Amino acid sequence: MPYNPEPLRDGLVQKVNSLHAMQPAFINPAGYVVIKDLRGVFGVPLAESTIWQKVSRGEFPAPVKVCGVTAFRIGDVLDWLEAQGKTDPPAPAESRGQRLTAARLPKRQAGAASRGER
Predict the structure, then answer these.
(1) Residue from 17, 5, 20, 24 nearest 65 by CA
(2) In what order do the strands lie in the sheet with 69-73?
(3) What is the pLDDT of residues 48-61, one digit of tens each?
(4) Of 61, 73, 62, which is closest to residue 16 (Cα–Cα)?
(5) CB contact at 8 A, 75 and 118
(6) Cβ burial, residue 111 (10 Å; 0-12/13-18/19+)
(7) What is the pTM of this model?
């Protein structure tokens, strides 16, 4: 009977998908994670393109091929996060509207004060 990698690939996909339901304390450091889950599950504060740039420069753990799927070793990613001092998930970024409002608010308040408005 010829070797069929499909059951292994399906098992990896199920394992990766199940990471979404797991708490970080229960993540197996010997497991693997795909790049799309690095930000959401592990809080890696980098875009996918930045991760690939850092991999090519040797600044981020290199991925491995597991049954045709490119994945990162969870233990390597956790070690990298600890070395960076970023073990907590990143705080949600302000939206563009929030940044613009914060930048414009002092000017609006100064204009209202000069017109005698409250």
Answers:
(1) 5
(2) 32-33, 69-73, 64-66
(3) 999 999 999 999 99
(4) 73
(5) no
(6) exposed
(7) 0.51
Q: How many CB atoms are closer than 10 A to CB 12? A: 19
- Say which amino acid occupies 34: V
In the chain, domain spans = 6-90
Q: What does the block give as tokens for 1?
A: 């009977």
CB 33 within 8 A of CB 41: yes
Residue 77: name the closest of 49, 50, 39, 47 by CA: 39
Tell me which amino acid residue 90 is.
P
List pLDDT tens digits, range 63-75: 999 899 999 999 9
pLDDT reported for residue 22: 47
Query: Rounded to whole angstroms, how far apart are CA atoms 54 and 62?
Result: 9
Q: Long-range CB contacts (< 8 A, 24+ apart) of 7-16? A: 8/66, 8/67, 9/67, 9/68, 9/69, 12/66, 12/67, 12/69, 12/71, 13/69, 16/71
Calpha distance 101→84 (Å, rounded): 32
User: Partners of 66 in the beta sheet?
Assistant: 69
> How many other CB atoms are there within 10 angstroms of residue 33's CB atom?
22
